[in-house]
Design goal:
Layout (H helix, E strand, L loop, with lengths): L12 H7 L2 E7 L6 H11 L6 H6 L6 H12 L5 H16 L3 E8 L1 H7 L4 H19 L2 E9 L4 H17 L3 E7 L11 H9 L3 E6 L5 H9 L4 E4 L7 H10 L3 E3 L1 H6 L11 H6 L4 E3 L4 H4 L3 H12 L3 H13 L5 H13 L3
Parallel strand pairs: 1-2, 2-3, 3-4, 4-5, 5-6, 6-7, 7-8
Helix pairs in contact: 1-15, 5-7, 6-8, 16-17
């Protein structure tokens, strides 16, 4: 009887994916605050600190508008610049545990200005302390994207855009500007002039689009110069747009669990992540606001493997996309891409 050739054992997916070098490109600093960190902050600031159960209740919501209100409730717990240092350090610590080697995180200067609770310069100095301390401790890098809140209006966003231009000269880690918030109340085309000026000032341009609005929102993001598009969920509704995204290789910051939890995507099988990948689009996986959605970046990779049948080689390609789509310098990109290419062999 002929002997069967022994088949190599498949690695444990979670262990393999945890070790896979990758980048997180769509993550909100304020949305990275876990209930445990919220309790830590409450013990520092509140005469009657939150219990862990009470902290978890802050994260409850039912739809996209109520998610924005829940997000606001968490950010209102940030009382001092020191709080921002803590959440930055904790965010990078948690990312490192998932095998993340580089992150590009949004920080909502728009919220700071709108509610006028803290001085922006003091907050930036604090997050920089958290960043440098965590980079040293965890062998991870972080770049900042300044987030303007589109539904606060053009005037408020203009102030945030101007501040971003100033901050990039003070902090090399500040590399981009984007607009988040409610797409319906802040159409991307209204921000064309601000994006033109931001590009002239040397900032990279990003835009949340096609999350809660149709493909016209993504077209508008491209038309104002967005270099990466966050969510892009509704691109699947427009074959012409799919063709343009594939041809231009515009990086898409996809957030599967986020889209499900906010109700923007009705069911898992309707999510276009595999469709986009098979159509040759530049797909990256991201977590958006992990504690709000109950899934971090490692969970997103596991979800792609388990539910969408991405193979290990395809997941390696997604990790490489995340590095390619980042704003890292070329030498660092090449080093990380080399690690990914040889990982697991």
């Amino acid at each position: 009887m002929a002997r069967r050739t022994p088949q190599p054992e498949q690695p444990d997916p979670e262990t393999w994916l945890r070790g896979l070098p990758k980048a997180e490109l769509h993550l909100h600093l304020e949305g990275s605050i876990t209930p445990e960190t919220l309790v830590e902050l409450s013990r520092l600031n509140d005469p009657d600190p939150l219990t862990l159960e009470a902290a978890r209740n802050v994260y409850q919501y039912t739809d996209f508008p109520s998610f924005l209100m829940s997000f606001k409730a968490v950010t209102q717990r940030l009382h001092t610049p020191r709080d921002y240092e803590i959440i930055t350090y904790n965010m990078l610590r948690d990312l490192t545990a998932q095998g993340v080697r580089h992150a590009e995180a949004y920080i909502s200067i728009g919220i700071l200005y709108h509610f006028a609770r803290l001085d922006v310069d003091d907050v930036m100095a604090a997050v920089e302390l958290g960043r440098t301390r965590a980079e040293r401790d965890f062998n991870i890098t972080l770049l900042w994207i300044i987030d303007a809140v589109r539904h606060f209006g053009i005037a408020e966003c203009a102030r945030t855009f101007q501040k971003a231009a100033e901050l990039q000269h003070q902090y090399p880690s500040v590399i981009g500007i984007g607009i988040g918030g409610d797409e319906a109340r802040g159409p991307a085309q209204d921000f064309r002039d601000l994006y033109v000026e931001a590009k002239q000032n040397g900032l990279h341009l990003l835009c949340h689009a096609g999350e809660s609005c149709g493909p016209q929102s993504i077209w508008a993001a491209l038309n104002i110069g967005a270099e990466r598009v966050g969510h892009a969920l509704t691109a699947q509704l427009d074959p012409d747009l799919i063709e343009v995204l594939a041809e231009r290789q515009i990086p898409l910051e996809l957030n599967i669990t986020s889209n499900l939890r906010t109700g923007c995507c009705k069911s898992l099988h309707e999510h276009p992540v595999k469709l986009y990948f098979e159509e040759g689009l530049m797909v990256t996986l991201n977590s958006d606001d992990p504690p709000f959605f109950g899934a971090n970046l490692l969970d997103e990779y596991l979800l792609a493997h388990r539910e969408f049948e991405f193979t290990f080689d395809q997941l390696r390609e997604l990790a490489a996309n995340s590095i390619e789509a980042s704003f890292l310098n070329p030498d660092r990109k090449l080093a990380l891409l080399g690690e990914i290419e040889h990982y697991g062999y």
